[in-house]
Write a sequence for this structure.
């Protein structure tokens, strides 16, 4: 049995490294983004992945992996925004931003472990294209919840959808051999 926890950590290490470097370069300018703006950024990344999977010709020299990393990091930003609210100016220092990143990943990994236990690592038999489609489905759900001002009748909230997108992206990257 492959060690999902170690593979997960290896993927997150790549994503966290990019997040920390961009935080040093740009600060936390993303703190001004409203949730629908983050959702749209994630949607663009997921649409690009699907396009890359369906088209033979690529005009930009980036692969699916960089887009999955973007999805993971934008989802973490969204989870932080849900907790902290939207800022008018960047208001998080480097250390606090990284601490919040680690907290959100910790909760998301725990969710993955719980679901992985119940589902018996079914994701290992899935295709990357199916994981991409699930991410797009989650994005459409999030957009609908946002259009409903965050209210749901029986469904999980926006945060759970962002967490699922993170976990699907990690699984896709494991399938792509990046762990």
């Amino acid at each position: 049995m492959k060690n999902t926890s170690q593979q997960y950590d290896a993927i997150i290490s790549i994503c966290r490294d990019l997040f920390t470097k961009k935080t040093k370069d740009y600060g936390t300018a993303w703190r001004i983004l409203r949730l629908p703006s983050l959702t749209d950024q994630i949607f663009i990344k997921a649409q690009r992945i699907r396009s890359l999977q369906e088209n033979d010709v690529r005009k930009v020299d980036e692969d699916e992996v960089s887009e999955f990393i973007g999805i993971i990091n934008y989802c973490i930003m969204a989870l932080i925004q849900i907790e902290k609210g939207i800022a008018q100016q960047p208001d998080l220092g480097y250390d606090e931003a990284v601490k919040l990143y680690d907290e959100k990943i910790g909760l998301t990994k725990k969710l993955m472990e719980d679901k992985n236990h119940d589902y018996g690592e079914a994701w290992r038999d899935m295709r990357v294209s199916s994981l991409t489609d699930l991410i797009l489905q989650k994005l459409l759900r999030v957009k609908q919840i946002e259009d409903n001002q965050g209210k749901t009748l029986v469904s999980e909230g926006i945060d759970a959808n962002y967490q699922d997108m993170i976990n699907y992206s990690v699984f896709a990257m494991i399938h792509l051999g990046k762990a």
